[in-house]
Amino acid sequence: MSIPVRIESQGREVAVTKLGQLVTASVKYDEVSALEVDANNTAFNIFLPIVGQQFVLTTILLTSTGVTGSAIIDIYEADAIDSITITKSILHVDLRKNEFRDLTQLNLLITPGVYLNVKADDNTVDVSLMGYYIPVV
Prior knowledge:
Helix content: under 10%
CATH superfamily: Nucleoplasmin core domain
Shape: elongated
Low-confidence stretches: none
Number of strands: 12
Number of domains: 1
Largest sheet: 5 strands, antiparallel
Number of helices: 0
CATH architecture: Sandwich
């Protein structure tokens, strides 16, 4: 005998199939933001805050496309869309010329009401972030 079950918590869905298999999946599909950081030490907004929602960061893809030496890249929470002041650091990494980083299967909960920004000390960095919004936990 099987009973259909649905449990939803923390942006994840859990279900048991007719065969007794436990299945977990994201409640929502990822949204993608891709941009080129083309100015040194300038804030680039990746995701805006949404009232009553908070962002779950699932993937970070970084590429240094033409730096002469290396590029220090910061992904961070900020109080304003154009702020270079880091209120909470998500990632701080130094990439050499033509190097890349791919961080997948993350499950990072971003503080409600903040901007998710990126800045670099070089102007040839490509950044792609993926994730989804959930009701404030």
